[in-house]
Amino acid sequence: MAENTAATRHRDEGGWLGRFTDRLLVVCPRCGGRASVTVSPDRPPLAYPGQLLVADRRLSCAGCGAVAEWGPERVGAARIGVSLGGTEDPFFHRPLWLQTRCVGEVLWAYNEAHIAELTAYIGARLRERGALRPTTSMFARLPA
Questions:
Q1: Alpha-carbon distance 94 to 43, whole Å?
Q2: Which of 105, 96, 102, 138 is nearest to 120 (CA)?
Q3: What's the pLDDT tens digit per position in 56-92?
């Protein structure tokens, strides 16, 4: 029987963690249920991916109806972006909904697409790095 190469091989093309920040799943500040942090719907379309770090945000909970707004810090006309990583969302500083203990650390994800990408990486027997941005890649920053 032939081995399924796609399931056993992962090629890291240098994907940036910020690409998963279009929708983050967090713990609701009011009811403790699952809430979403998304780019504010009244904002014009983003011109480039880096704008995800400075785009106005809305936290909303379908369970209890909680809503909150976030905007980036400004210095003159410049918007100051958030820093990514960790077990809290970078905008409202709410705990991420998707996190669990794993080999003495906390494994976390921003959303389902982030989990799918991590699953493909972790499940691969062969992990290859692409030539593009090898040190800024999300996978290059994971612990061994």
A1: 22
A2: 138
A3: 999 999 999 999 999 999 999 899 999 998 999 999 9
Residue pair 67/101 in contact (Cβ under 8 Å)? The answer is no
57, 70 Cβ separation under 8 angstroms: yes
73 Cα distance to chain centroid: 20
pTM of the model: 0.83
Token representation of residue 38: 């998304």
Decide if 135 contacts 123 (C-beta within 8 A): no
- Greatest extent of the chain over all pairs of C-alpha atoms, in Å: 64
- List C-alpha distances in Å: 101 to 27, 31, 39, 104, 105: 17, 23, 29, 6, 6
Q: Are 17 and 53 in contact (CB under 8 A)?
A: no
| CA 82/CA 62 separation, integer angstroms | 25
